[in-house]
Write a structure and sequence with these properties.
single chain; 337 residues; Aminopeptidase; three-stranded antiparallel beta sheet; metal ion binding; AspA/AstE_fam; cell membrane
């Protein structure tokens, strides 16, 4: 691809902003509630626009929110794989399985032309990660340009783009239902607590996302460039007792709160409850993130490790009406064949 080549992409007509996928991650819960209160003003503004943008606000897991719990029966944000969404249904299905299929019907179906154009799913982490966008693609130019826009508009907030290299069928989180999607993960914030600085960063971030969509739809050309992408390599669990499976160590003080600070072989990793230092035995330096995330104890994850890459993204602009019609005719011809 030529560096100065402009990639033309379809208009983003429908956007979903989701909060409360985890019912105790409160920044997203309270922000979406506020956005729902303001929805009448938003609708009036949309009606005044020639080509309105539909922004749908969704409270994803209302039962878990009511109880201020991560989930009721099972983690909703692991329920959006192709197999789960399309599996046989039963009256005994866990609540979150039922809810994932409702959300898929509302925002999808996943992988179909009817799916919303962009899903922004709001999350908090107890880890010291700043503001991260987490996505399944390192070549989704929409998500990467949104990230680059946020970096420029919010220079005082530490910001990273995390890539989970998972296929579309195996992608498991709510944001995967949209044609484009990402989780906006902001921390540190304890679960069940809302901190004004974290809430405000999320609120400002979401507004910049929506602003970017308006700019894109109005024909703005976004220049190409480079973005640092952190591709997840592996998870590391805590040391555990072989019989009880209880953890026997905590994150080492030298690593705690140092998300995205390069971890070298032989650096301190854990400190056992008897005081011994356990060191990182990997073969290469990698970047830790989700360090000591509260919700991941049950998942057997003490931290995740990523490799940083410099990814070139092309210049992009919205397709013209004629280009979009030509594309649609091309798709129709392919289907007839």
């Amino acid at each position: 691809m030529e560096v100065d080549e402009v990639v033309c992409l379809p208009r983003l007509s429908r956007v979903a902003v989701c909060g409360g996928t985890h019912g105790n991650e409160l920044s997203g819960v309270y922000l979406v509630r506020e956005l729902l209160k303001a929805e009448k003003k938003v609708r009036k503004k949309e009606e005044e626009e020639e080509e309105p943008l539909s922004v749908q606000m969704v409270l994803s897991n209302p039962r878990a929110m009511q109880q201020c719990r991560r989930y009721i029966d099972t983690d909703l944000n692991r329920c959006f794989t192709h197999a789960t969404l399309n599996g046989s249904t039963s009256d005994s299905d866990p609540y979150e399985i039922i809810r994932s299929r409702e959300l898929n019907a509302m925002l999808g179906p996943k992988g179909s032309p009817k799916a919303v154009d962009l899903v922004c799913d709001l999350h908090n982490t107890t880890a010291n990660m700043g503001l991260c966008l987490i996505a399944y693609s390192d070549c989704d130019w929409i998500c990467l340009h949104i990230f680059r826009h946020l970096q420029r508009q919010m220079p005082d907030i530490p910001m990273r783009y995390i890539h989970f290299d998972v296929s579309s069928k195996e992608s498991y989180s709510l944001d995967s239902v949209g044609k484009h999607g990402f989780a906006m993960e902001i921390g540190p914030q304890p679960h069940g607590v809302v901190r004004s600085n974290i809430y405000t960063a999320m609120k400002v971030g979401v507004q910049h996302v929506l602003d970017w969509v308006h700019f894109f739809n109005s024909g703005t050309i976004f220049e190409g460039g480079f973005v640092d992408v952190f591709t997840m390599v592996k998870h590391i669990d805590y040391p555990r007792d072989s019989e009880t499976r209880n953890i026997t160590a905590a994150i080492h003080p030298q690593l705690q709160d140092r998300d995205f600070c390069l971890l070298h072989p032989e650096d301190a990793l854990f400190q056992t409850f008897s005081g011994e230092t356990l060191r990182y035995k990997g073969n290469e330096p990698l970047y830790p993130f989700f360090v000591n995330e509260c919700a991941y104890y049950e998942k057997g994850i003490a931290l995740s490790l990523a490799r940083k890459r410099h990814v070139m993204i092309p210049a992009i602009r919205v397709q013209t009406e004629q280009e979009q019609q030509a594309n649609e005719q091309g798709f129709a011809s392919e289907e007839e064949e």
